[in-house]
Every structure is written in C-alpha cells, then in structure tokens.
Amino acid sequence: MNDDPREFVFTRYEARHGIAWLKQAYALFSRKRLPWIMLLLTYYILLKLLLYVPYVGPYAISILKPVFAVGLLAAAWTQERGGTPQLNQLFQGFRANLGSLLPIGIFFVVGVTAAVFASSLIDNGKLLDLLSNAGGTMTEEDFTAALADGALQAGMLFSALLTLPILIATWWAPALVVFQNAGAGTALAVSFRAAIANFRPLAIYALGVFFYGAVLPGLFSGVLILLLQEPGLQIAKVLLLPYGIFLAATLHISDYVSYRDVFHAGETLAPLAGQGAEPQG
Questions:
Q1: Which residues contact 79 (CB under 8 A, 6 or more apart)?
Q2: What average pLDDT does range 135-163 have in this prediction?
Q3: Kindly report the CA angle at 50 between 49 and 51, in degrees rounded to 5?
C-alpha cells in the first residue's frame, strides 16, 4: 500500500455530534446483539491468549489491534448495509492491508512507550519505577500510596498529554486504510487532521465515554455498597458485567460510525450483494 498525495475530504461537526456517535453505535448494536457479543468475546479471548506469549505478548496485542480493528469495522459496515456481523470478519485485516496496518500498531507502541519514558523529565523516573514494580511484590497499599505522590501524578499527566496526539492519529487510521486504501503514513496524518478539526465532538464523545464507563457504574456500585455493604459490591459486579459488554460493543462500533460520519457524510448506503460481504481494500 503506497502513500499518495490524493485529497481526503472530511466533514467538521458541532460538539453535540459526539453524543450522536454513541447513540448511533448503540442503535446498531441493539439490532444485532448476539452476533456482536460473539464477535467481541472471540476478539477478547484472542487478545488474552496473545498476552501469554512470553516477552512480546503485550506488544503484540497493541501492534495487532489495528489489524483486528479492521474486522470490527467490516462487521459494522456489513450490518449497516443489511447484513449480519460474522466471526470470520474478525480476520479481515490479516487477509488485506496488513502491510499498512502493522506500521500503525508499531507507531502506537513506539509513541506510547516514548511518552511513558518522557515522564522521567517531570517525576525523576517515579512512573517508570511504579510500572516496573506493579507486577512484582508491591502491595495494593503501596500502589495506592505511590499514586498519591504529586511528582508521580505530574509525570502521569505529562505522559497522557504526549499520548493524546498518538491516540488521535491512530483513531481513524485503520478505517482509512481499509475503506480508502490509504498507506500507513497517510492514514495517520489524515486521521490526525480530521480529529483536530473535530476536536469539539471528540471531546464530548470522550466525556460521554467517561460518564457511561466510569461515573455511572461508580454511582451504581456506590449506592449498592451503601445500602447492602459487602454483598452490594458482589451484586454490582454481577449486574455490571452485561452492561460492560454492551458498552464495549457500542464503543467499538462507534469507531466505524464516527469514521463514516466524518469521511463519508451524506453518502448513500449501497445494499449488500450477498450476506456477509466485506469491504474491499
């Protein structure tokens, strides 16, 4: 896949459109819940298996995420045109565009790693020490105490700010590769420009994710614990499990919904020629 100078047109939206992406994504999920749940369970099982690969497992997960993302994009593309998400679509990225998708994953790993190491400029290596000891003998109390350190918090914030450009550059990059045949460099650059142009809806989208992913479950758990003490925590975990699955599916589908809205605004959806058809890269 070669990077080329052709123009990639995208649309700018108002802030409230960020919530619309979540609503549209949930609407798609709600119409095909079982296929999406099966697809995502398979995806997470594969990621879990990769985690056990010695030495390279965590890096392999991050590098391959853009490849697997293409499968989830293909499933949403198929459903939007009247089809049903299929398990075999999860491997669509391995069958096409692999040469452009892997560099996106490598870019993400290298960028985030550099951002974490850069925290030493602020906290004198405290975040790196915490990460290196987190999987060892550090107790939960030690971990909590370490997080209360002001210098460490400043280092974490600095790393997060450095990671933000990497996240938005990779946000729509896999979709640009599979749907518009872009090379890795072009996809990253175009995704970055489009995300900056749509920073308002993306900010509202991020706030919506924080509300539904952290605030709402936290309030629900807090009320149950307040009313029922220790059993309330266990009940909350059980009740929030399906909620977490529904939310995860919605967020994955929203990657496609937001891409389609930004890069293909107003386009007519052509119906599938056959069930399970896939986008051509």
A1: 28, 31, 32, 85
A2: 79
A3: 90
Segment 184-191 shows an average pLDDT of 95
The answer to whether the Cα torsion of 30, 13, 202, 262 is positive or negative is positive
Residue 276: the pLDDT is: 41
pLDDT in tens, 32-60: 999 999 999 999 999 999 988 888 888 89
Asked which of 76-85, 219-228, 264-273 is least confident by mean pLDDT, the reply is 264-273
pTM for the whole structure: 0.85
- Asked if residue 256 lies in contact with residue 21, where contact means CB atoms within 8 angstroms, the answer is no
pLDDT at 152: 82
Map 81-135 to HEC letters. CCCCCCHHHHHHHHHCCHHHHHHHHHHHHHHHHHHHHHCHHHHCCHHHHHHHHCC
Task: Categorize the per-residue pLDDT at 150 as very low, low, confident or very high, splitting at 50, 70 and 90.
Answer: confident
DSSP assignment of the chain, as one string? --------------TTHHHHHHHHHHHHHHHSHHHHHHHHHHHHHHHHHHHTSTTTHHHHHHHHHHHHHHHHHHHHHHHHTT----GGGGGHHHHSSHHHHHHHHHHHHHHHHHHHHHTHHHHTTHHHHHHHHTTTT--HHHHHHHHT-HHHHHHHHHHHHHHHHHHHHHHSHHHHHHHH---HHHHHHHHHHHHHHTHHHHHHHHHHHHIIIIIHHHHHHHHHHHHHSHHHHHHHHHHHHHHHHHHHHHHHHHHHHHHHHHHSTTPPPPPPSSTT-----
